[in-house]
Structures are given as C-alpha cells and as structure tokens.
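Risk mitigation, structural track. In case the binding assays with adenosine monophosphate fail to produce interpretable data, a predicted complex structure has been prepared as a fallback.
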Amino acid sequence: MMVIRSCAEMSALAEQQRLQGNKIALVPTMGYLHAGHLSLVKVARQKADWVVMSIYVNPTQFGPQEDFARYPRDFDRDLQLAESVGTDLIFAPTDIEMYPPPHLTQVVVDKVTAVLCGASRPTHFQGVTTVVSMLFNIVKPHIAIFGQKDAQQAVVIRRMVADLHYDIQIIVSPIVREPDGLAMSSRNRYLTATQRKNAPVLYRALQKAKARIEGGENDPSAVQEEIRRTLTSVDEMRIDYVQIVDGETLQPVEKLDKEQNILLAVAVFLGNTRLIDNAIVYT
Ligand code: AMP
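Fallback model:
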C-alpha cells in the first residue's frame, strides 16, 4: 500500500491509473479508523480496480469551539487497518498541501446545509464540500463512497455532485454499529464509561420510532416527542435536534406516509461529546 502526501504526486498517479483504464474509488476519511470506515473500503474494493483512502482531518469543517485540536489520530494503526481490507493507496496530505495560502475559494451548497447539523454547525458543510471537491479533483475517482452515518453529508455531497456536474458515482453505505447498537464513530472514544453505557439509547429511540411509524403513526410531532423523552431519560444528555425530514430535501414532513422517503435524524450532546444517528423509514 502506497502512502502519498503531495497533491501533485497523487494527481499524477491517478492520471496514470485512468490512462491504464482502471476504475478509481475514493473513500474520504478523517482517520482513527473503525469498522464503519473499513466497510466503505470493502464496498470500494468490490466496485473499483484501484482504491484510494484519504486520511485528512480537515480544519475548515470544524467550528472555532469544536474538537479539531483533540480529534483522535493514530496514523500507524490506520495504515495497518486500511491495508488489511485491501486499500491500494493512502492519501494523507498536509494542511499546506491542501490549503496553500491565500486559498480564497469555497464550495457552498445552499438549503440542505442550513438545517439539522448545519443549523448548529453553520460553517461545517462548507468545509466538507470544499475539501471533498478538492479531493475529487486530486484523486480523480470514478466512484466515491460515503457512510449513511452522516446522512446529511451524503445528501449534501450528492447535491454538489449533481449541481457541479461531477462525473462521479456516489455510493452511500449502511451504518455500522457496535453490538449494543451504538453507531461506530471516532468520537465515541471521548465517552466516559457511564456515557458509553448510556449511548445506545440513540439507537433504541430511533428503532422504537421507526416501528411506531411503520405501525401506522402519521403524526411526526408525536414521534419526535417520544424520541425526545427517551433520550432525555439518560443522564448528561442534551438534545441538539430530533427531526423527521424528507430524506432528499431534508425539510420537515407534515404527515408521515408510505409514499415518502423519511429520515429520522438526531444529534445530542452526551456530556461534551456530540453524537449523531439516524434511521430511514419505508425505503
Ligand atoms: P469520518 O472519518 O468521521 O469523516 O468518516 C469518514 C466516512 O466514514 C464518512 O463517509 C462517514 O459517513 C463514514 N462513517 C463513519 N462512521 C460510520 C459508520 N459507523 N458506519 C458507516 N460509515 C461510517
């Protein structure tokens, strides 16, 4: 497995692969890998000839009060894990490679970035779309794989790819969970033992809500209220949002019906740690 740090070198290697007729898959990550990330590589491996994983803790997607400086990093462990599932190349650029000064350009997707996580993290998605756009240009993938764990991110990236006419197939892969239901996340390591024990309440609340909707409940506010009650039964839990939205527009739904692609989305703070989770209903 190769490790590349320079954008120019990465770009040249990608060009070579394209000239050889190879199909390139990109799996963008911020490292500190877990089985969720590795599941994306496994999908990539099945669909492409050359699998590139980027490992880059992108500073521009963190707010000023957020955890950029203490975001967990373990590059050597990441290399072993990435190689174990058949990654061909790790692209791990430095900040100066990615954002050579003065760097004045941003990619902004409207509307779908203003709701849910975008409401409490106003600059987050702009950082994500800018860095993903740069990664697309450098790695030149035919396909890129993202996780359903970050449901809004997947919607935003699909929008960007359609709107900017990127010739890249976006694949969204299911959420990988711990045995007790907690969605895997690099941030789970911030949790204290008690918080970790309580964290699966997110999954339980979502599953209960999904079952209730599938059982015929059509009032979103009743379901949201029940999710809120379940979540706040846990110590140190503060809700950022609990929303039932259309899976594509991310706008709130008035009435729950089977014709719609419905997304149940939650974000909470458990102590100081922000956790997100979601469930899709009907599709
Ligand atoms: P991150 O390193 O958190 O930026 O995540 C990199 C990619 O892995 C994103 O597309 C995430 O949606 C995806 N991902 C993170 N956690 C999971 C998970 N538990 N299951 C599936 N995909 C995940």
